[in-house]
Design goal:
34% strand, 4 helices, single chain, alpha+beta, 173 residues
Length: 173
Amino acid sequence: MSDETLNGAAPADNAQNAGPAFTVEKLYVKDVSFEVPGAPAVFGEAGQPQLQMNLQQSVQRLNDQAYEVVLGITLTCAIGEKTIYLAEVKQAGVFGLVGFDAQTTDVLLGTQCPNVLYPYARQLVSDLVQAGGFPPFLLQPINFEALYAESLRQRQAQAQAGGLSGTEVAGNA
């Protein structure tokens, strides 16, 4: 009944009064690549395979309430100096963040968003490796909160180092 008297204004008011909101708007694969440079000869290679995983994350603000977060995983399997396979996945999502202060937004983008994306990226890497003719491989869970905390410490150290350099330059001028 109140919707009728406000001519539809109530839902917008309720959204504003609801407080902060974190939403997953869209999940998608942004880029994927799988290479077996020495196939089919690599299937007969003897030796202990060594796996190296690199993790990257990028954030792009789309508008006042939406961010694109891309979680990149590169998995390289090698025996000695020979690359057996290389899997690269960029799992992405658009996330809505409304009503959060800047610090909380940064924490959510650095922890919760990759926590949402990682299971999808992990499954895609596993499927690629198996489809490439190799034994199933499952990436272990990642503690994004610990990675974010380390990233925050590094940013603070760089800011302090930058602040000292700025003071020295100002003092010399």
